[in-house]
Structure formats: structure tokens, C-alpha cells
Amino acid sequence: MIKVENVHKSFGEEEILKGISTEFDRGKTNLIIGQSGSGKTVLLKCLLGLFKPEKGRIYYEDKAIQDMDDEEQRQLREESGMLFQGGALFDSMNIEENVMFPLRMFTKQKKSDMLARVNEVLKRVNLENVNKKFPAEISGGMQKRVSIARAIVNKPKFLFCDEPNSGLDPKTATLIDTLIQEITHEYNITTLVVTHDMNSVMEIGEKVVLLKDGKLVWEGNNQQIFKTDNEDVTNFVYSSDLFKKIRDVQLKEG
Amino acid sequence: MKYLQDIGSYFLMIKKVFGSFTKTSVLKHLIFKDINDLIISSLAIVSFISFFVGGVVAIQTALNMDNPIIPDSLIGFATRQSVILEFAPTFMSIIMAGKVGSFITSSIGSMRVTEQIDALEVMGINSLNYLVFPKIVALMFYPFVIILSMFLGILGGWVAGVYGGFTSSADFIAGVQEDFIPYQLFYAFFKTTIFAFILATVPSWQGFYMKGGALEVGKASTNSFVWTSVLIIAANYIITQLMLS
Questions:
Q1: Per-residue pLDDT tens over the stretch B14-40
Q2: How far apart are the C-alpha atoms of A181 and A82, rounded to whole Å?
Q3: Are B114 and A91 in contact (CB < 8 Å)?
Q4: Based on the structure, what is the number of domains in chain A?
Q5: Does residue A46 belong to any structural domain of this protein?
Q6: Residue pair B119/B13 in contact by the 8 Å Cβ criterion
Q7: CB < 8 Å from B in window 143-182 of A
Q8: Residues 6+ away with beta carbon under 8 Å from B110
Q9: Domain that holds residue A120
Q10: Is B198:B235 a contact under the CB 8 Å cutoff?
Q11: Is Transmembrane included in the keywords of this UniProt record (chain B) (predicted)?
Q12: What torsion, rounded to 10 degrees, do the Cα atoms A149, A165, B124, B121 define?
């Protein structure tokens, strides 16, 4: 579980996060949605410890990140996996080395054990026979799956995903969403997905948080989001023609 | 004001490079990779330039010696002094600022643009130690490149002098051995080590703290070459003033 309490973050004069408070549950896919510039990525980077909020507290399980010493923060990062928007795979390493990287850095396992675990997670993300290829030699969707494999190889407690579907075709995007949700349930981890993709919201939004201009304006789940009358939600959700038509059909059917 | 901030940020980077070390087995692998990328891969261009510039120095000296009183051994002497004191340590370092410096900046800058550095940070790895420390260690082997450059520079001078008909082999070798001061070699290697540190850290700073996309990686590489060269020339002047005057 991750708890956020009254988090404020500014860059210069501009306040990006204006007192965000919420909870992200364990074993669920928690989605942070909002328009570009609403503060989603800044909130994610605050949660990851890449940005320090000026005010407010962020709790991992029961301990605030602000109260952790360097060693505890390092330990927390070891227990976290991150899926970046572009994959962020290391160009100079092949797929096997990329996935093995967290194991090499943080464990003292034998190479054969590490290799077995790498093959296990690659199989889990439906990738086989790509071990010796380099990131540039595989497709964007495959890179995302390798990135998921690298994020979960060290059995993390927390998984963070920054726009995991960007740049992917709808079918691959659905595959990635489904994979993230399956892994969340399988490993019982706290997963946070930053997205503005409404398909992801529909498919995996077990908890959805909507940000607007740095404020949390609504929270609920993928069932509630289509029923709420909250104006900010309707403005965001029905900004696309497809979802407007779905809403019209729903209204007609009562 | 920005220059002061940049200088501060550079020294803070150096401090962070030596804090929170990466696992030794991983670091060892990175150091060997950087020795290959930065040192071994530079040997061919260093050899080529050194040999021919040594030759040109010998020819230029010979062509400017029109007084018959001046002995032919001066060609060897001038070649040795030019190559050991300035050409090999300083000008080869400027060339390396272009080759190695832009490689370091563009590789670290590309990692910044594609979020690979963020990925390291998120994993709890000291990215500066992971990326920059192996380059500093690898470039501590740079004086060996300069030994090769010195040797090939003088050899190039000998080939050009003797086979160009400007001097005899015996006169050239006598000139190379004339008034040899071992302290000058110490001076040359001392400044080479300082230049190696500049070569490793300034381009790393340019790449690590760059912002933007692919275009900015190119700009950072150019800045890296300019600033590395400027610092090498400035350091060369200060070291020469302190050690030789």
C-alpha cells in the first residue's frame, strides 16, 4: 500500500501538485489519469523519490519516505520496479543482460540461477528466443514486455508504469495492460499506472485517480467512472467521440 | 552567474561520483568495457597522427635550418622536445577531446534522453558512480597512449629526417639523446594524468546534465569538445608555469 498525504510540489513559481492525498492499494492496478500537464508524471516521480515534495508525506506500507534513511530508501528502490514510457532498456546490453541487471546489482545469486529466473520472467511476458537480441532489434511492444520483465525480475513490492501504452497499436496496448494486471494479482504488488488512455481505464482501472491542474478531483474505479456526474470526469472521459457515443447509448438504455 | 552554477554543479558531480559505490563485479566489467571503448579504440588514430606529425616536425625543423653552423642533430633534438613536451601530451589530448569526449557526452546524453539514467536512479543505483567512475579509471591508462604517441612521433621524425635526406640516422639519434632531462618526462606524464581526468569528467558532466532531445545531445557533444579543449589548454598553461618556470 502507498499512501499520499497533502503532497505539494513546485518548480520555480509554478505549483504543479497542490495538496494531493490518496491511497493506492496492494494487489490492485491503481491508475493515475489526467490531461497532459495535470501533474501525473510529477506525482509519479515524487512517489519514486526522483522529486522531493516541498510539503506532505508519502508512506510506503507504514513508513514515510521522508523518515527513511539512505539505506532504507535504497532498499525501497530495490523493492520497486519501473516501466518507463520508452522502455528505458540499456542499449549496450542484450535482452538477457537487461533483464538480469537488477539481479546482478542487488543479489548474490549464481549466474545459472539468475539465468533461470530471467528465462522464467521472459516466458511470463510471452517472450522467448530473444535473449541475445539487442533492444534496437525488437519491436516497441516487445521492448515494453522486456521492460516489464526487468521490473518484476527481482520480485518487487511496488510496480510503477509511466504511460505503458504510448506508441503502441491498440492490440499490443491491450496485451500490455492485461499483462500488468495479471502480474499485479499474481505477485500481489501495489501497481501504479500513469496514463491518459481510456481503454486502459476500462480494462484495468481497479482504482482510478483523476488529476486536474495539480489537484485530485475524483477517485473511484472503472465501473464508477462511467456513471459519475462529476463534471471534471465527464469532461475528461467524454473528450473522445467514441466515449461520447458509448455514453449516448448508455443514456438511451437508461 | 550561470558559469558559477555550472562550476558548482561540476564539483558536486565529482563528489557524487565517489559516493555510494556500485557492486565491484559490475564495476570491473564496466571498467574493462570503457578501457576498450576509450583507450584501445583510440590507439589507431593516435598512432597515425603521432607518426605523421612527428615527421612534419622533423621536416619543418630541417627546412628552417639554413645556417651551416647548426648541427643536423638539432632535427632529432627539436623533434624530441616538441613531441614529448607539447605534441603528445597536450595536442593529442585536444584530439582525444574530440574523439573520446564527444563519445562520452553522446553516450551519456543518449541515456539521459531515453530515460536510462532515470531507470538506474529508480533502481537505487548511484548513476554517476555507475557511469562516470569507470571512465575515470579507464582514462588513468591514458598515459600509456601518450607513451605510444611519443615513441611514434619520434619514430616518424626519424623516418622523415633520414629517408627524406635531411639528416643521418646517427645525427638524429644523437639529437634525440642530447641534453635529456628526465624531469621533463615526469612533467609530461603529470599533465597527461590531469588531462585524462578532464577528459573523463567534463564530457560526462555535459552529457549527464543535458536537457532535451537528440538535437541537444549533438549540441552537448559540441560544447563538450569546446570546454574540454579550453580546460586542457588552461591547465597546460598553469602546469607549465608551475612546473617548468
A1: 999 998 888 898 899 999 999 999 999
A2: 14
A3: yes
A4: 1
A5: no
A6: no
A7: 160
A8: A91, B116, B217
A9: 91-155
A10: yes
A11: yes
A12: 130
